[in-house]
Structure formats: structure tokens, C-alpha cells
Amino acid sequence: MLSGLTLSAVALLMLAGVVLDWLLGEPRRFHPLVGFGRIAGLIEQQCNRGGAGVSSYLRGVIGWVLAVLPLVVLTGAALHAATQAHSLLGMALHALLLYFCIGLRSLRDHMLPIAAALAAGQLGLARELTSRIVSRDTARANDSDLAKAAVESTLENGNDAVFGTLFWFAVAGGPGALLFRLANTLDAMWGYRNARFLRYGWMAARTDDALNWIPARLTALSYMLLGDGRRARQCWRTQAAAWPSPNAGPVMSSGAGALGLALGGTAEYDGAVETRPPLGTGRPAEADDIGRAWRLVGRTTLLWIAVLGCLAILNERMPHA
């Protein structure tokens, strides 16, 4: 738990960060994670050179350390200094850092326009909007393909951009949320299984897997509790292991089952059609299901803020030695 703060304070700071995100959305001029991505790109250009082999893994470790640790350490030191100067200043900075790291409002702002375009029959616009948030090709995608891609992305980012950030904020405050999002960003940039990143990106992929292991399963549990629980549990149990990612599998299979949708299957990447394992059961995704998926993520956020708040109340009422 966040050092020096009560459980009640952590719950209030978490709520404050989520409220800031909801009211303000993403920073329009300069988003810290966008700036970090540029820095990480420059580091990769310098570190990811030379032949294959063990040295490629080592360069990936060095690149990860150079990109992440200085920012996390400096942020932690700044927060400590601010807290020493005035406790309220330190608390405000923790909430502000959570605001910069979490992506609940951003998820809504990226996904719901896709649903609106599909509902209005604007297939070209829906393809363009979807291409901004997924890596698959959308030039020949139909309505169902786009709805499926948006729902899958919403469910996965419900963990990566929202709940995982909240979890690590509860564990280690602003620096914890920052560490998680930086690691997640590097995995998105470097965690590919291709010639360029297979070895260099190993550190980024494995670190993200480790940091995501508990949050992903709590997210999957939340989807199960807040949707069609029986179907979500069955899909999680039978489908998660077949998915390439050890953490995306539980999250997306449980989420698809909770919504009663059949996701996964074929998608086009770099001009080639790939068949991925099935996710969920039921009917294919439609435009309205994008909003349903986002509301599931929103309810998950509220659920865990409420859980933390209830734990804080119980903790205060318990007798302490």
C-alpha cells in the first residue's frame, strides 16, 4: 500500500485521479506518454543495433532500463520532496500523476465515435477511426469486423489503460501507476515477435506480462461479476490458455463471455489474413456492443474504487493495537 498514507487517503486519491480524467480527458497539447514514446523510439534506435544473439537481449534490457527507471526514480524523488514540503501537495501530485496515466475517458473518446460512425452507415469513417486504435488492417473491413476490433480493443484496454493502472496506484501510488504505464507502452512499441524485436523486445514483453498478471485476472473477474457470469467463467476457463498473450487471454475471453459475444477469429494484418483463437460465445459484435463494452469497463472502474473505499471503512472501524 502507498507508504505514509491511510487506505482511506489512497481511495480518495484514486477517485480524484479518475474524476480528473473524466472531466479533463487527455491533455491536448502534450501527453506525457506520447513524449515518452518518442524518447523510447530514440533509445531503441541507438540500442537495437548489431547482430542477433544474446547481445540483442542485453541491449533490450539496457534500453528498457534507460527508458523507464530514470523517469520512475525522478518522479518518486519529486513526490517525496513535495510530500515533505506539504502533505497535501504530495497527495495532489499523486492524484495528478494518476490522471496522466489512466485512460478511461480516452478509451470512451476513441471507441464511441466508431460506434456512431457504424450506426450512421459511415463505413469509411469507421475504418479510419478503427485504424487509429488497432494494429490490424481495416481498409477492407466490414461493419462486423470493425465492431469486433473495437470491442476487443476496449476489453483489453480496460485492463491495460485503466484497471492495471489503478491496481499499481493502490500498491505504490503515482510512481507505481507510472511504472505500469511506461512498461505497458514499451510492450506496445517493442513487444513484437518479428525480426526487429524478437530478442530486443523480450524484456519489454516479459516485464509487462509480470506487472499485468494480477491486474489482468482481477479485470477478468470483474467482467465476470458485472456481466453474464456463467458464460464469462466458462469462456475464461476454456479459451484463455489458447490466446497468445497470457494476460489478454483471461481479460478478453471473460469480457467476450460477459457480453455474450463471439470475438476472435480471422483478422487481416499487413495484408495477410490471420486466424486467432475464438473468444466468447454468442452472436457477432455490432455497433451498439462497443458502447456496452465501454460501460463494462466503466463499471469495473467504479467497482474497484468502491471495494477500496469499503476496505478503508472497515479498516478504520477495526480496533488497532
Sum this structure up briefly:
The protein has 321 residues and is mainly alpha-helical. 73% of the residues lie in helices and 5% in strands. The chain is built from eleven helices and two strands.
Please give a handful of descriptors for the protein shown:
globular; 321 residues; two-stranded antiparallel ribbon; 73% helix; 2 strands
Q: Overview of this structure, please?
A:
The chain is mainly alpha-helical. It has one domain (7-317). 73% of the residues lie in helices and 5% in strands. It has 11 helices and 2 strands. The chain has helices at 7-24, 32-47, 54-85, 87-101, 104-119, 123-131, 143-190, 202-226, 229-239, 248-259, 287-317; strands at 263-269, 272-279. It has a two-stranded antiparallel ribbon. Strand 1 and strand 2 (272-279) form a beta hairpin. Helix 7 (143-190) packs across helix 11. The longest helix has 48 residues, at 143-190. The chain is globular and about 55 Å long. The model has no long low-confidence stretch (mean pLDDT 92). Belongs to the CobD/CbiB family. InterPro entries: Cobalamin_biosynth_CobD/CbiB (IPR004485).
Radius of gyration: 20 Å
Gap from first CA to last CA: 19 Å
Series of H and E elements:
HHHHHHHHHHEEH
Structural class determined from secondary elements: mainly alpha
Main sheet record: 2 strands, antiparallel
Strand order of the largest sheet: 1-2
Total number of β-strand segments?
2
- Average pLDDT value? 92
Helix content: over 70%
Output the number of helix runs.
11
Report low-confidence residues grouped into runs of 5 or more. none
Total tally of structural domains = 1
Morphology call: globular
Proportion of strand residues? under 5%
